[in-house]
Amino acid sequence: MNFTELEIQNIENELEEIINAFQNRGTEQDKEEIRRAFRFAYDAHFPIRRKSGEPYIIHPINVAKICAQELNMDKNALIAALLHDVVEDTDITIDNVRENFGSDVANLVEGLTKISGAMNNMYDSAQIENFRKIFISMAQDYRVILIKLADRLHNIRTLDSLARHKQLKIASETLIIYGPLAERLGLYRIKTELEDNAFRISQPQEYAKIAQKLKDTEQQRILLINKFSLPIAAKLTEQRYDFEIDGRPKSIYSIYKKMVRKKIPFEEIYDIYAIRIIFEPKENEGTEKEQCLKIYSYITDCYKPHPTRFRDWLSNPKENGYEALHSTVMGPTGQWVEVQIRSYRMNSIAENGIASHFLYKGWQSNEVKLEKWLSMIKKVLTSDAQVDVSSTSEYLTSMIKNSEIVVFTPKGEHFYLPDGATVLDFAYALGPQIGEKAALAIVNHEQRPLNFKLRSGDQVKIITATVQKPTHEWVNYATTVNALTQIRRFLHEEAEQLAPKGEAKIKELLEKLQIKFTERIIEKLRQHYQISENDPHIYVLAKVAQDNLDSESFKQILKKYTQERKINFFQFILSREDEKKDKSQRKQYVPAECCIPIPGDDVVGYELVPGVITIHKVGCSVAMDLNAKHGDKIVPVSFLKEEHKAFIAELTFEGIDRVGIVRDLTNVLSTDLNINIREIYFRAYDGIFEGSIKLYTRNVQDLENVISKLKKTKGVNKINRK
Ligand code: MN
User: Fold this and answer.
1) Chain segment 313-353, per-residue pLDDT in tens
2) The one catalytic residue among 17, 30, 54, 89
3) In this structure, which of 110, 445, 656, 674 has its CB flanked by the most CB atoms within 10 Å?
């Protein structure tokens, strides 16, 4: 099973493309090493083919090509890309890789192998654990993330021949993890391609609809963009700027997300496209930023700006390095149009993010931020407190998100926080000591609570109190991983301390009530204290330790979270009434379910089915309706005189919940002909059985009779008359 001449030629060509893309970044010796890695991978994978039929080596080659052409990566990264599947799919070991290519390459390949191992277990119960593994591997070295993104990009470009369930798995991982990761690193072009492909695969019809609408509206859009751009282009030409104006539409997936989020149709999205003005800064005419602002002023000479939609990513670039000036202006046709102003350098960062680091020097400040982010992920994921405070996948993926807002201290220091961050998040950003003692904040000279949402530009002073400490509520107040981790750690330590006391208390209360301890009891207390299912046991115990729980309220809690077993007894009682009333007639009297008449009520009967008389209360609305429609079916009835003197009694009883007890009790009740049960229910919890009966009886003797019969039933310990 050999490769054809054409296939081999193809493989060789692809390799040369990698070498060409790498051209300026390394020596001849480096290139030789890349070729050696290629041979190594080629031999390892030979003669395996992909599902599509092409030689397997085509995949690692293409991954390396993306790393070389689109991500501008270094020699070792390209080698690792070529070798990324050899440990997973062939007999080659990490040690073999280390012997041949050194430990830097081996570490990268090991990280990539771990990720794919974890990904394959994604549908196991330990999904969160797998997420953690993925993030930990990635956080070791950002090159692992980039190669993994290239791997995913090539896979998603070429997954047509895979089985549907595999396609869907790849698509959902891409939307949940890889798209947001690419965005976090500023790789917008890759993010868009990943997400649009994943969306096309997972929701082909929705994708096709939007793609079609974009196509249908393209001509019209081009006209609008031209009309809008013309005066701006004239102005910039007059000012001798080297520039281009671009009006590409948003990605299909982001249009879809907006339609879903805002619940609006395609036609109502006003920012299907944004106008990008990309320019080369002129020498000796001020900084890039100054020139951006100058261009902004030319634009607002032509069009009126929206009073609030203005974002300055020049003074405060996004955490992933994004720089630009965004403004929304009223276009010539009366529609709002978003305009983004960037230099070519900024544009390269906007499209290639971290990858443009290699092209434009002097981007160190963003590298520092990236390092901070990676070390934060490492710290959070490897901290012990995190282990049993197991979290959701949203929690982990929230770590990927960019910080969008900038908040200032009264001294003018600034902090980046994610969109939606609260006062409490900011307090923890200042340090755990401040976070834990935070009581409230002064935001722009006004007093605000801990869950107050901050906005970009807010000046915030945190007021602390010595008596303050984190509570379970704080978990709802905080949004950043940093704050949540600190709060959870505090709560966890506190719970560990209090748990033994709580456990002893529960045991004491159970003893008093003679109830056996079961796991269900903890679950009921969890519901009572509204402690999340994700939180461990000890949180419930700690809460009990802090609460003044007496045995009566404890019993109420156990009872409250128990499902009642209600049993309606009426049917058979009334059919007995029939016998008592007139034994000669073979008629059946049935209480109507709508009004459930009881002895003493004024009643009326309807013989809708021959032989069966349904009894309603006189005022019942269904009866009124029947009167109107079936006047001829009315049967005058009334309860026997003696029944009027019947009195209502309520019995409650308690016992041990055993199999068959309900049946035994109902047998006792149904053999006694002198009582008339109005309502009965049973309830069992934690081994205890409880019930109550409301009944009508004509004399105390009959009632005593029932009580003594019930008492004889096995399992019933106690009967009380209310
Ligand atoms: Mn791969």
Assistant:
1) 898 887 777 899 999 999 988 888 999 999 999 998 888 87
2) 89
3) 110
